[in-house]
Specification:
It is a single chain. The protein is of the alpha+beta class and 619 residues long. It is built from nine helices and 39 strands. The strands form nine sheets. It has a nine-stranded parallel beta sheet with strand order 25-24-23-22-31-29-28-27-26. Strands 4-3-5-10-7-8 form a six-stranded antiparallel beta sheet, with no helix packed on it. Helix 3 (332-346) links the parallel strand 24 and strand 25 (352-356). Helix 1 packs parallel to helix 2 (305-314) and helix 8 (478-499) packs parallel to helix 9 (528-536). It starts with a strand and ends with a strand. Pfam families: Glyco_hydro_2_N2.
């Protein structure tokens, strides 16, 4: 749930216009009615859009303050009230709160401008359509009224380690008068969750202005938050109350680390299987769960509060990128500032599991290459020549201390912390994933892999889709296209899991056009690759080590924290065999070796106490 407080809310009616940015209040000949929050399609492609509204003094008898609260202000903005400029803003994921010196009647104008630096992320590229990047107020727009003093904002972060869990609290108070008081901080479980409520008091002493109160609140006998395949998702409401003002936010108790064992949540290993999200929606979280993913990567953009809320509720970890993608230098201090603000804005989210800084800082090494031995040599030559100065990125990553970081996301040759590998799409065949990982010491963390596919016979919108590359690989036809994509994703996902990759994320969950890298079409309908990826992502699954003609091992992958006894059945063109065996926690067991011929249909089933996982191959 979003933060709640004791304020009175006022919604607004807005009009908008494309404008030329200048130093004064934006003006326009014609203003059109628009929905705010939102991304008005009529302004797609415009570099600056102004939003205007009028309202009477919203304060009631006990109110002293009126505050404008905007969320998702993309990308740079200025705010005027009654002709006076009040604020500037430059980070859409950081809520903008502006104290309003309201009069009896008021005119409010917000000018939103396209990115003016390197931190527009995916919304400053051609990987999303223009109507997804409209300068505007995307997530929320209200006016709050408050008494004096009042709690302006509440930032909380769970702390789980030795001893009882605690919640670190930062509560910002605004007052017009000198203040010497005490704030009440209380925490209580949401719904049917174990752990009694706790109450603390913290001193608030300040001159007129703004002050931030810090305090740690202990949670006795608290219940921990887990990814959906390992446990439940209990959460706790933290309330800060000062006189007649209060504000509440929700968090979950969890810790996240990364070491040689992989990703650890609450000290327990998590086999992270994920998908990349581009311009994500709340519905995408449930879709990711259906694909057996327990992680989503926010690809070069920041997820909205509503999408984070869905991840918290459904137990999906978030690998959060800073909005920085593509080759080119960037301002390190600006990057550090944005990283700190990003953590503050999302630190209450138990789903937040990792942060990356720079996505795709160098070009793809596989561009223009084929599948032969000479192409491998050319790939190695390109990797040898590749270079990247990671000093600036590491300086930004150093300010992130609350979750693990994978600062550089990119291809072989630059020593990425998380690899982008596209065997079977940009280079070679899907089975070349092992060569890529072995030759370039990749594979512990894989941020992207996959292939593109059509979702319609004659796509009109091919955003984030390389039609030329697709034609060289597949030819034409939706069925052939989707079958090829499914084969690539399934093969690479299974090979990476067999290798023991700690974190992997397919690119991508959903298309943004009529064709693309998604395993779902733009409208959420399933391509053939969706079921193939879901099968490859089953926590316990039987796979072929080499699904090509010749000999192949039948292997059981068991990504569970406890040993188990499983029954494995394999069927090759109607000839069925079965075996019961024991497999350890996060184990890999070779069951048998079978001979395969072109055209064989192979089915593998693995039965556990939780059910039966099926996997199918056409050799």
């Amino acid at each position: 749930m979003p933060a709640e407080n004791s304020a009175t809310y006022m919604s607004l009616e807005w009009r908008g216009a494309a404008v030329e940015p200048g130093s004064g209040v934006p003006s326009a000949t014609t203003w059109q009615d628009v929905d705010v929050p939102g991304r008005p399609v009529k302004f797609a492609g415009d570099d600056a859009v102004a939003y205007r509204t009028e309202f009477a003094d919203p304060r009631e008898a006990d109110d002293e303050h009126a505050v404008l609260v905007l969320e998702g202000v993309f990308a740079h903005a200025r705010v005027w009230l009654n002709g006076a400029e009040l604020a500037e803003h430059d980070a859409y994921f950081d809520p903008l709160r502006v104290s309003l010196p309201v009069e009896d009647e008021n005119e409010l104008v917000v000018e939103c401008r396209a990115p003016e630096d390197r931190f527009g992320g995916i919304y400053d590229t051609d990987r999303v359509p223009q109507n997804a990047s409209v300068p505007g107020i995307w997530w929320g727009a209200t006016i709050e009224t408050h008494p004096d003093p009042y709690v302006e904002s509440l930032s909380v972060a769970p702390r789980v380690g030795n001893g009882e869990p605690t919640v670190a609290v930062e509560a910002t108070v605004v007052t017009d008068q000198p203040l010497d008081d005490r704030m009440t901080l209380s925490i209580r479980p949401e719904g049917d969750v174990r752990g009694g409520g706790m109450m603390n008091r913290a001193a608030v002493e300040t001159d007129p202005g703004r002050v931030t109160v810090t305090h740690d609140v202990e949670v006795r006998d608290g219940s921990l938050w887990w990814p959906h395949d390992l446990g439940d998702q209990p959460r706790y409401a933290l309330r800060a109350k000062l006189d007649d003002s209060e504000r509440t936010t929700v968090t979950g108790l969890r810790s996240v680390d990364y070491d040689e064992d992989g990703l650890l949540v609450n000290g327990e290993r998590v086999a992270a299987r994920g998908v990349n999200l581009t311009d994500a929606t709340e519905a995408d979280v449930e879709r990711a769960v259906r694909a057996n993913a327990n992680l989503v990567r926010a690809h070069a953009h920041v997820l909205s509060p509503e999408v984070y809320e869905a991840c918290d509720e459904q137990g999906v970890l978030v690998w959060q990128d800073l909005p920085l993608t593509g080759p080119g230098e960037f301002d390190v201090e600006r990057g550090q500032n944005l990283a700190e603000r990003l953590l503050r804005a999302r630190r209450n989210r138990p789903s937040l599991a990792a942060v990356s800084v720079h996505d795709d800082p160098t070009p793809d090494l596989g561009e223009g290459l084929g599948t032969g031995a000479v192409d491998r040599l050319r790939y190695r030559w390109r990797a040898w020549r590749a270079s990247y100065d990671r000093g600036p990125v590491d300086s930004v990553a150093d300010v992130v201390s609350e979750v693990p970081t994978f600062p550089v996301v990119g291809p072989a040759g630059i020593g990425p912390d998380a690899a982008t590998i596209y065997p079977g799409w940009t280079f070679g065949e899907a089975g070349d994933v092992d060569w890529l990982c072995d030759r370039f010491d990749l594979g512990d963390v894989v941020a992207e892999f996959g292939a593109g596919a059509l979702a319609a016979d004659d796509p009109a919108d091919e955003t984030d889709f390389d039609a030329e590359r697709h034609a060289a690989r597949v030819g034409s036809g939706v069925d052939e296209s989707q079958d090829y994509q499914a084969d690539v994703l399934g093969t690479v996902a299974e090979r990476l899991r067999l290798r023991g990759t700690n974190v992997l994320a397919a690119y991508a969950l959903r298309d943004v056009g009529d064709a693309g890298m998604g395993v779902l079409a733009r409208d959420g309908s399933e391509k053939t690759a969706f079921d193939r990826l879901a099968a490859a992502y089953q926590p316990v699954q039987g796979v072929l080590s080499d699904p090509t003609p010749g000999e192949s091992d039948v292997v059981v992958i068991h990504d569970r924290p406890s040993p188990a006894t499983v029954t494995v059945e394999w069927d090759v063109d109607g000839e069925r065999e079965q075996e019961e065996l024991k497999v350890g926690a996060y184990g890999r067991v070779d069951v048998t070796t079978i001979s395969l011929s072109a055209g064989d249909a192979v089915t593998i089933a693995v039965a556990t106490d939780d059910g039966v996982a099926h996997n199918e191959y056409r050799i």
